């Protein structure tokens, strides 16, 4: 079952990487963290930060930020696990 979890994570990262051509670096001045940021056509920004030494050989933390216009009322991202 570990392979299913890894495949799910890989597919999620592939989706984010495919948006990379439309993304840009974003520096969060409050935290000092640099994110890769993609903003869709309705103004929702999805930002992802990975450690510089991230690899498939070891576990690492991922930071995901979702920023939506106040007019939307709410913005979210769903993370699931394939079983």
TrEMBL record:
Pfam families: CDH-cyt
Keyword field contains Hydrolase: no
UniProt keyword Signal present: yes
Keywords annotated in UniProt: Signal
Residue intervals of the Cellobiose dehydrogenase-like cytochrome domain: 26-80
Annotated signal peptide: 1-19
Domain of life: Eukaryota
Full protein name: Cellobiose dehydrogenase-like cytochrome domain-containing protein
Organism: Xylaria arbuscula
């Amino acid at each position: 079952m570990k392979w299913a979890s890894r495949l799910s994570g890989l597919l999620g990262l592939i989706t984010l990487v495919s948006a990379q051509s439309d993304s840009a670096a974003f520096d969060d001045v409050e935290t000092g963290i640099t994110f890769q940021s993609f903003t869709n056509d309705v103004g929702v920004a999805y930002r992802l930060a990975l450690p510089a030494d991230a690899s498939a050989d070891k576990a690492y933390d991922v930071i995901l930020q979702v920023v939506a216009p106040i007019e939307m009322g709410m913005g979210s991202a769903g993370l699931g696990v394939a079983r």
